Amino acid sequence: MSLLERVVHIDQTKAWYGEIPIQSRYTVGIAGERFFREIKDNGRLWGTRCPHCDLIYVPPRLYCERCFAHLEEWVEVPTTGRVHTFTVVHLDLDGNPLPEPRIVAFIQIDGTDGGLVHDLGEVDPEDVCIGMCVEAVFKDPAERRGSITDIRYFRPVR
Q: Does a cis peptide bond (omega within 30 degrees of 0) precede residue 59?
């Protein structure tokens, strides 16, 4: 299939197996740097608030997506939230069965207009439900590296 042909059925798509020899560098930006540093150093979540729209963004942004205002007010937000949606993953990216299912959810952070996609832990897949209250479980401070994986997972609030 050439680049000019249009895919109209899923069975026409192609996959690239192996490695693509590309190197790149991704930075989390100013807002991401502060967000991840707060997780790493203090085990806390922060967002940015729009003074015009009164939205609190998690993850934080520097500009409001609704009114384009520059966001300068940083607010600490709870480490709790609710499961907005979820999926149970049984296969890895290569199609191999996982040793045990992995639950990935979008967590709406309490008191904010945003959330995080992350793993759920300490819960069986059949017990997960939309609206379930969860809380972040952070790695020990010595293990944190300044990334989203510094949150081990979210678990049900007991």
A: yes
Q: How many domains does the chain have?
A: 1
Residue at 14 is within a domain? no
- What CATH number is given to the structural domain containing 55? 2.40.50.140
What is the rounded distance in angstroms from the CA atom of residue 63 to the CA atom of residue 65? 6
Residue 71 falls inside a structural domain: yes
Question: How would you write the pLDDT of the chain (158 residues) with one tens digit per residue?
Answer: 556 677 788 777 777 778 877 877 778 899 999 999 999 999 999 999 999 999 999 999 999 999 999 999 999 999 999 999 999 999 998 899 999 999 999 999 999 999 999 999 999 999 999 999 999 999 999 999 999 999 999 999 98
